[in-house]
Every structure is written in C-alpha cells, then in structure tokens.
C-alpha cells in the first residue's frame, strides 16, 4: 500500500475559519477529490517556545484514533520545516460557544439533544480509555446537521490503570476531586456534563463568581442555584451529575437514558425521521492513509 505524503500544495486554501493560540485554521479543498476540510496550521517555533509540542503530539495521536459522529475527525497530519498541518473535518456550524452567546441560553430540547450527543461521544472516548478532562462550550463545534463535534483534545489523556493526579482543565468546569488534587478517573467528565448542561440552560456556568477562590469554594461546597425557568427534569439530571463523590454520579449511559434527555431526544428523532444522510459521509475513507 502506498502511503500518501500530504503537502500544502494538495489543497486550495480558502477563507480563515479562526485563529488559535499557535496558528490559524483555514477552509480548504483537497484538489484531487474536491473534499472540503479545515486545515489547522501550527508554527513549530511557537509550539517549542511555549513548550507544548508534547501536548500537541498527544492531542494528534488521540484525536486521529477516534471516529465518532460527535467528535471532530482528524483525517491526517503532515509537517514541513516550519509548520505542522492538521487535516480536520470542517464543522460548518462554527463554534457552540458563539451560538450560546448569540442565543444567551439554549431551550430545553436543544440542550437535551446536545447533552445526549456529548455524552455519547464521551462514552465512546471512555471505552477507548481516553478521558477528555476539558469539556466546555469553547471546545465544541457544530456540524452540518446541527450536531455537536467535540473538537479540542489538548487536555485529554490516555488513562492507564492508575488514576491521574495532574491538575488541569478550566476553572468553572473543575470537579471537586481535581481541586483537591485527589486521584480521578473518567467521572471528571460526568461532572463536566452536569456543568455543561447547566450552562446551556442558564447561559453561564453554575459556580461562576468574580474570583478564583470563590469559585473553588462554591465547587467544593457544591453551591449553586437554579433560575426559576429551569424544569424539574433538567434539575434532576444536573443534580445527579454535580455530586461530590465521583462514584455516586450517574454515568453517561444513565445520562442518555435520563427521562428529561430521552423525552426531548425522542421527539427530535421523530421530527428528523425523514432527514437525508450526510453528503460527506465517505470523506473519511478518502483521507485514510
Ligand atoms: P483552535 O485553534 O482549535 O482554537 O481554532 C480556532 C478557531 O477556528 C475555532 O475557535 C473555530 O472558530 C475555528 N475552527 C477550528 N477548527 C475548525 C473546524 N474544523 N471547522 C470549523 N471551524 C474551525
């Protein structure tokens, strides 16, 4: 089998899609097959300067091995003297975070649908021994059918047998066991799904305060309140995820089967029953080595 060596000249580069810390993302079309992708172009010098090459390599290795409808595909990657280029699935709907800012908050059917999809994707990651550790709206994109795509694996780790003790992730989404630097496992992602669900419905995360110390305190005390418009079903789900003891949190299968999630997802499925399939569904085969 001949392994294709990719080069930038294999692509027509289109408009910039966004700017990251270490480079830019462009819309691009692969010349031979005409497949639309996103190219993430990272500068080696900046990666080395910030000492994140190892993190990037980890991110690449993890994402390249995952294949799930709610995880942004990384088809391949290549590098030249100065740059590392990631060939990514193009997420037509852009950033979930921007969508949330635009709408202020999501309605319950939308929130439930997103929570189902994120849970499905994370459950798949966990089955591959990958813990994400940094789930938040900023790390989620939206695909061509309005589905979520988990996009950022910079903080995720391959979990070995022993549980990890590194402190990482975003403050508002940190579970108590990471604040106290206790050992943790994939239940850190269950907690994040609870925080995410709250943020979708309310427009801000549950433990947000002005100072880091106060946020830590509120997380440690699990101190949050629901605005009156949040339904009993959603409160029940969030309450079963924002639990101090990781072992007492409901798992992701239970999230997907939760009555509040199910009731909205079933309705959505009925509404979408006659929808056509993804026109780009064969893309991945064409980018495999
Ligand atoms: P990042 O460096 O991953 O933070 O990407 C910077 C920005 O580019 C993101 O916030 C998105 O707005 C955009 N972006 C990144 N990857 C994609 C993609 N695969 N499809 C569409 N937009 C993307």
TrEMBL record:
<keyword id="KW-0156">Chromatin regulator</keyword>
<feature type="cross-link" description="Glycyl lysine isopeptide (Lys-Gly) (interchain with G-Cter in SUMO2)">
    <location>
        <position position="136"/>
    </location>
</feature>
<dbReference type="GO" id="GO:0000070">
    <property type="term" value="P:mitotic sister chromatid segregation"/>
</dbReference>
<feature type="domain" description="Protein kinase">
    <location>
        <begin position="11"/>
        <end position="261"/>
    </location>
</feature>
<keyword id="KW-0469">Meiosis</keyword>
<comment type="similarity">
    <text>Belongs to the protein kinase superfamily. Ser/Thr protein kinase family. Aurora subfamily.</text>
</comment>
<dbReference type="GO" id="GO:0032506">
    <property type="term" value="P:cytokinetic process"/>
</dbReference>
<keyword id="KW-0808">Transferase</keyword>
<keyword id="KW-0067">ATP-binding</keyword>
<dbReference type="InterPro" id="IPR000719">
    <property type="entry name" value="Prot_kinase_dom"/>
</dbReference>
<feature type="binding site">
    <location>
        <begin position="89"/>
        <end position="91"/>
    </location>
    <ligand>
        <name>ATP</name>
    </ligand>
</feature>
<dbReference type="InterPro" id="IPR008271">
    <property type="entry name" value="Ser/Thr_kinase_AS"/>
</dbReference>
<protein>
    <recommendedName>
        <fullName>Aurora kinase</fullName>
        <ecNumber>2.7.11.1</ecNumber>
    </recommendedName>
</protein>
<dbReference type="GO" id="GO:0051321">
    <property type="term" value="P:meiotic cell cycle"/>
</dbReference>
<feature type="active site" description="Proton acceptor">
    <location>
        <position position="134"/>
    </location>
</feature>
<keyword id="KW-0418">Kinase</keyword>
<dbReference type="GO" id="GO:0004674">
    <property type="term" value="F:protein serine/threonine kinase activity"/>
</dbReference>
<dbReference type="Pfam" id="PF00069">
    <property type="entry name" value="Pkinase"/>
</dbReference>
<keyword id="KW-0547">Nucleotide-binding</keyword>
<keyword id="KW-0723">Serine/threonine-protein kinase</keyword>
<feature type="binding site">
    <location>
        <position position="152"/>
    </location>
    <ligand>
        <name>ATP</name>
    </ligand>
</feature>
<dbReference type="GO" id="GO:0030261">
    <property type="term" value="P:chromosome condensation"/>
</dbReference>
<dbReference type="GO" id="GO:0006325">
    <property type="term" value="P:chromatin organization"/>
</dbReference>
<dbReference type="InterPro" id="IPR030616">
    <property type="entry name" value="Aur-like"/>
</dbReference>
<feature type="binding site">
    <location>
        <begin position="138"/>
        <end position="139"/>
    </location>
    <ligand>
        <name>ATP</name>
    </ligand>
</feature>
<dbReference type="InterPro" id="IPR011009">
    <property type="entry name" value="Kinase-like_dom_sf"/>
</dbReference>
<dbReference type="InterPro" id="IPR017441">
    <property type="entry name" value="Protein_kinase_ATP_BS"/>
</dbReference>
<feature type="binding site">
    <location>
        <position position="21"/>
    </location>
    <ligand>
        <name>ATP</name>
    </ligand>
</feature>
<dbReference type="GO" id="GO:0005524">
    <property type="term" value="F:ATP binding"/>
</dbReference>
<dbReference type="GO" id="GO:0030496">
    <property type="term" value="C:midbody"/>
</dbReference>
<feature type="binding site">
    <location>
        <position position="40"/>
    </location>
    <ligand>
        <name>ATP</name>
    </ligand>
</feature>
């Amino acid at each position: 089998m001949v392994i294709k060596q990719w080069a930038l000249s294999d692509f027509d580069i289109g408009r910039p899609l966004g700017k990251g810390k270490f480079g830019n993302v462009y819309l691009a079309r692969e010349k031979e097959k005409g497949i639309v992708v996103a190219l993430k172009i990272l500068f080696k010098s900046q990666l080395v300067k910030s000492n994140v090459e190892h993190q990037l390599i980890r991110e690449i290795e993890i994402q390249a091995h995952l294949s799930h409808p709610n995880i942004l595909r990384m088809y391949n990657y290549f590098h030249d003297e100065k740059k590392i280029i990631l060939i990514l699935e193009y997420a037509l709907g852009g950033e979930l975070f921007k969508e949330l800012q635009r709408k202020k908050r999501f309605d319950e059917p939308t929130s439930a649908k997103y929570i189902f999809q994120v849970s499905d994707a994370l459950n798949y990651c966990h089955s591959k021994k990958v813990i994400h550790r940094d789930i938040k709206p900023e790390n989620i994109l939206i695909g061509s059918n309005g589905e979520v795509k988990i996009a950022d694996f910079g903080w995720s780790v391959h979990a070995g047998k022993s549980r990890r003790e590194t402190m990482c992730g975003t403050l508002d989404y940190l579970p108590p066991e990471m604040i106290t630097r206790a050992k943790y496992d994939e239940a850190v992602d269950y907690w994040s799904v609870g925080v995410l669900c709250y943020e979708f419905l309310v427009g801000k995360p549950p433990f947000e305060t002005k100072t880091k110390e106060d946020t830590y305190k509120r997380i440690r005390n699990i101190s949050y309140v629901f605005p009156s418009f949040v339904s009993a079903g959603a409160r029940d789900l969030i309450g079963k995820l924002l639990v101090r003891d990781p072992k007492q949190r409901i798992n992701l299968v239970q999230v997907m089967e939760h009555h509040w999630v199910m009731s909205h997802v079933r309705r959505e499925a009925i509404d979408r029953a006659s929808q056509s399939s993804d026109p780009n569904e064969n893309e991945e085969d064409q980018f495999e080595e």
